[in-house]
Amino acid sequence: MSGNYLAGCSCALLCGCAVDAQPRDKAGNEQCVGVGVFHIAEGHLDETDLSGVDFALYNQFPSHLTAGDWKIGIVVDSGATDSQAEAVDTIVSGREGGPFEQLSQFFGDYLGMERAEVGISDGDRPRLSVGGRSEIEVTALTGPDGGPTTLKNAMFGFAPEFTLGTASGSSEAFGLSFEGSYGEIGDFAFASDQAEGAATGRG
Questions:
Q1: Is pLDDT at 194 greater than 60 in this prediction?
Q2: If residue 103 lies in a helix (H) or strand (E), which one and from where to where?
Q3: How do strand 32-42 and strand 2-9 relate by DSSP bridges?
Q4: Per the structure, how many domains does the chain have?
Q5: What's the domain range around 136?
Q6: Domain annotation covers residue 112
């Protein structure tokens, strides 16, 4: 499956999770709590077409990522069919193989799947929305030439290259709450038969 995503978390700039560093928020708390919304432009699991489905991935990383004990939960858009929602749950939980199976070794508690309205808005300051749970707006960082500041070839990343930004807004779901600080924007492509190490993920 492939498409675009928008994510925000509690970490002070820059979030260290991408390079397996100890996360830290503005108050000095050493954990990363975040959410990313993924829009699947094209994709499928077996005979289930996932094109057009949006889902949110929530995380709590209590330390650097390879220390494990992650809490992970997902919310699938209420407009998706039951079979589409179940397919997304199968993929993200790691049961279908690919990059999420690699990541599932670090899960301490997979919090399961819920349903709500989920989406991403376009524009200079894109916003993710998960009905009754999260509203996060991301502003891209820019370099001297006015272009976006990007991170490439990160150890843990939803994409080979993604845009770094600041985030505002708040989120509360699965007992995990945070105020947005760091944000990122990118395009993703995941496959269950992806070569080991070809992609990893973070929120």
A1: no
A2: helix 98-103
A3: antiparallel
A4: 1
A5: 2-189
A6: yes
* pLDDT 10s digits, 13-22: 999 999 999 9
Contact 61, 30 (CB under 8 A): no
- Quick one: tokens of 203? 């929120």
Whole-angstrom distance, CA of residue 108 vs CA of residue 44: 27
- Residue 202 is assigned to a structural domain of this protein: no
Both ends of the chain: CA-CA distance in Å?
17
Q: What CA–CA distances, in Å, run from 94 to 88, 99, 147, 170?
A: 10, 8, 35, 28
Cα–Cα distance between 1 and 15 in angstroms, integer?
26
Residue 196 lies in a domain: no
Question: Is the residue at 195 inside a domain?
Answer: no
CB-based contact 164:152 (threshold 8 Å): no
**Cα three-residue angle 64-173-26, rounded to 5 degrees:** 45
Rounded-to-integer distance, Cα 135 and Cα 127, Å:
7
DSSP label of 65: G
